[in-house]
């Protein structure tokens, strides 16, 4: 399998930065965007990576140079980048892609796991779709029916009769698809239609092929087509991934990098807290002092990790035991994450546990907390709707847990 990175264009929406360097050389956490892409492609054991360049093409080639000896890299140049669109760039690579390929838009940054899922998908042709995106005039819209993409285009009319999302620009196409696709592209180029998107040609043959929709839910991604998106990418793809890698190395743990906007707050959660037998009886649970303003305290934080521990059980007794131990296991991991975050410079890192604090098996001391340096407040205690927040992270928390034989503990590490 080959991969194609489409990096020929110049997006004037990124002025003045784009005047100095192409978007694939914009630095995210002190590393060019193209390096992030190549790092994530390395584990796929690709036959070849083709980088289609145009604007300031020599600058890109000089930057990559010998840094990726583990990849066979070919450069193709679109010297008409300023008068053609991406369909023309893709057409220039057709002779090298006849057996199928993975395509990546040059202004898209996503997590490594997504590339792996696309490459190893059981489906021959796949397009990644985000159903959480706001679909405006600039978004490449995909219409999905039964997990298949049945229509695609920026001008696609969105209605409530089908499922729609944004095609993010990470795809895999089979050799059978490519054969017809490039025949269609040939005709368009010969007719002088070089100003189209590559998706426009896909739309023309979409009824002849099955293209599976891969839902991006659970992965972070960003398209860097505005200056504010570049700043957001630096926040989203920072060294926070050193922390997520630690979590993923632990058995039965899952995690998702989030922004503060991903947290779902609901005042009804606090209402349910008041019905708990531990309400007012534990030092980390409500009610809190009147001057405890959750949103003011959390406002300096800008990102974090949602951490999930999946626990299984077979009997009611086992459930009661695992329910206690899972809380403490997650609690210890969150405290470890705080320490690791501090070593990375996040001095105000703090965490919220799943469920009430169970550090003291026999309950809280009536006079004061025995472990104030270790105890942490539950997510629910500050009004976070754990179920809805988990959904946004691609984790479905089901009830009643006894019916399914497993449950999730959820925690949160905040950085800022």
> Briefly, what CATH class of the largest domain?
Alpha Beta
| CATH-defined fold name of the largest domain | Spore Coat Polysaccharide Biosynthesis Protein SpsA, Chain A
Tally of strands = 17
- The total number of structural domains is 2
User: In whole angstroms, how far apart are the ends?
Assistant: 40 Å
Measured by DSSP, the beta-strand proportion falls in 15-25%
Overall mean pLDDT: 92
Secondary structure: helix percent? 25-40%
Biggest sheet features:
9 strands, mixed
SSE-based structural type = alpha+beta
Low-confidence stretches: none
Name of the CATH architecture of the largest domain: Alpha-Beta Complex
Shape: elongated
CATH homologous superfamily placement of the largest domain? Spore Coat Polysaccharide Biosynthesis Protein SpsA, Chain A
Concise synopsis of the structure shown:
By secondary structure, this protein is of the alpha+beta class. 31% of the residues lie in helices and 23% in strands. Strand 4 (48-53), helix 3 (57-64) and strand 5 form a beta-alpha-beta unit.
Describe the structure.
With about 425 residues, the protein is α+β, with helices and mostly antiparallel strands. The protein has two domains: about 1-235, Spore Coat Polysaccharide Biosynthesis Protein SpsA, Chain A, CATH 3.90.550; about 240-415, no CATH class. About 30% of the residues lie in helices and about 25% in strands. It has 14 helices and 17 strands. Strands 1, 4, 5, 6, 8, 9, 10, 11 and 12 form a nine-stranded mixed β-sheet that branches. The chain has a four-stranded antiparallel β-sheet with strand order 14-15-17-16. Strand 4 (about 50-55), helix 3 and strand 5 form a beta-alpha-beta unit. The relative contact order is 0.11. The mean pLDDT is about 90.
């Amino acid at each position: 399998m080959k991969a194609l990175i489409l990096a020929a264009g110049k997006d004037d929406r990124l002025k003045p930065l784009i005047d100095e360097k192409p978007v694939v050389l914009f630095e995210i956490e002190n590393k060019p965007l193209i390096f992030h892409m190549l790092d994530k492609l390395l584990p796929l054991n690709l036959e070849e990576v083709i980088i289609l360049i145009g604007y300031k093409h020599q600058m890109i080639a000089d930057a990559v140079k010998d840094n990726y000896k583990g990849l066979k890299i070919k450069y193709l140049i679109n010297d008409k980048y300023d008068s053609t669109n991406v369909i023309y760039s893709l057409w220039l690579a057709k002779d090298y892609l006849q057996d199928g390929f993975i395509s990546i838009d040059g202004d898209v940054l996503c997590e490594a796991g997504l590339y792996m899922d696309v490459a190893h998908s059981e489906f021959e042709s796949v397009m990644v779709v985000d159903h959480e995106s706001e679909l405006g005039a600039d978004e490449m819209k995909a219409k999905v029916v039964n997990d298949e993409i049945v229509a695609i285009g920026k001008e696609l009319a969105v209605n409530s009769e089908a499922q729609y999302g944004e095609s993010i620009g990470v795809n895999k196409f089979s050799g059978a698809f490519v054969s017809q696709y490039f025949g269609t592209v040939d005709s368009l180029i010969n007719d002088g239609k070089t100003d189209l998107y590559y998706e426009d040609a896909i739309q023309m043959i979409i009824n002849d092929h099955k293209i599976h929709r891969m839902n991006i839910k659970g992965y972070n991604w960003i398209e860097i087509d505005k200056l504010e998106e570049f700043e957001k990418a630096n926040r989203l793809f920072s060294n926070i991934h050193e922390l997520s890698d630690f979590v993923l190395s632990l058995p039965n743990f899952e995690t998702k990098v989030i922004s503060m906007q991903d947290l779902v707050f609901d005042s009804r959660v606090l209402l349910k807290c008041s019905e708990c037998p531990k309400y007012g009886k534990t030092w980390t649970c409500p009610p809190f002092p009147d001057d405890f303003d959750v949103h003011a305290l959390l406002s300096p934080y800008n990102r974090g990790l949602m951490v999930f521990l999946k626990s299984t059980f077979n009997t009611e007794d086992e459930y009661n035991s695992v329910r206690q131990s899972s809380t403490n296991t997650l609690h210890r991991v969150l405290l470890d994450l705080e320490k690791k975050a501090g070593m990375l410079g996040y001095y105000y890192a703090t965490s919220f546990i799943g469920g009430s604090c169970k550090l003291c098996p026999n309950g809280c001391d009536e006079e004061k907390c025995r472990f104030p340096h270790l105890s942490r407040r539950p997510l629910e205690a500050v009004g976070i709707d754990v179920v809805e927040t988990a959904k946004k992270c691609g984790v479905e928390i089901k009830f009643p847990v006894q019916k399914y034989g497993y449950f999730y503990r959820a925690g949160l590490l905040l950085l800022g």
